[in-house]
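Example 3.2
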Amino acid sequence: MSKLILYHGSSEIIQNPEYGKGKSYNDYGKGFYCTEHQELAKEWACTENTDGFANQYEIETAGLSILNLSGEEYTILHWLALLMEHRRFRISTPVMKRGADWLKEHFLIDLSPYDIVIGYRADDSYFSFARAFVNNEISLAQLSYAMRLGKLGEQVVLKSPEAFNAIQFVSYEIANNVEYYAKRKARDDEAREAFRAELERNDLEGLYMRDILREKVKANDPRLR
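Structure, written as C-alpha cells:
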C-alpha cells in the first residue's frame, strides 16, 4: 500500500507544510517530522503548560525514494552517525570525539537522494543514551536495549520538495497538555528508570566504542547485527 496516514504534533494547525522550514539540528536535519501514531503526535505537540494539535495528513509514496533505517542493511550505528552529523552534540572527552568522527566517516548515510527518511526519534532520554555509548559508558547491546525502552516507535521525515508536494492535510485534533505532557513525561521517566537498571548489569563481553575504534569496526562486522 503506497498511501500513508501521518500525524505531526505541533503548537499550531499546519495545513500546508513548507519545504525548507524547520531546524537544521533535528535528528535528520531539516524536514517535516511525523509519526504514524496519533497518540505520539499528541504527546509531541504539548508542553507542560500549553495544549497542542495533532495534525493528520495523507501522503502518496509511490514514486518517492524512502530510506528506512530499520532495513537489514543498516545498523543502529548508521542512525547514531546521523545524530552525530545533525544534532547539537557536546564533545566532552577524547574518546567521544574520536568515536563521533569514526561513526561519521564509516556509517554516515547521504540523505540527499531520499524523499523520506524513516527511523528512530531521539527524545531527550534517548539522546543521552546515544551520548553515553559514544563516550564508552555503555555497550552496543545496552544501547540497543535502551532504544527499545519507552516504545517511542519510528518517525517519518519528509526531506524533499517531491515529498512535500505529495502530502495532503486531512484534519486535526486538540491535544490536552495536562493529559499528554504527563504521558510524555511518564514515558521518558520509565525509559530512564529501566535504563538505570540495565546499567547495573555490567556488560563485560559487550562491544564498546573503544573496541570499535581499536578494532576499526565497520558496517559489515557481524557483531553489529
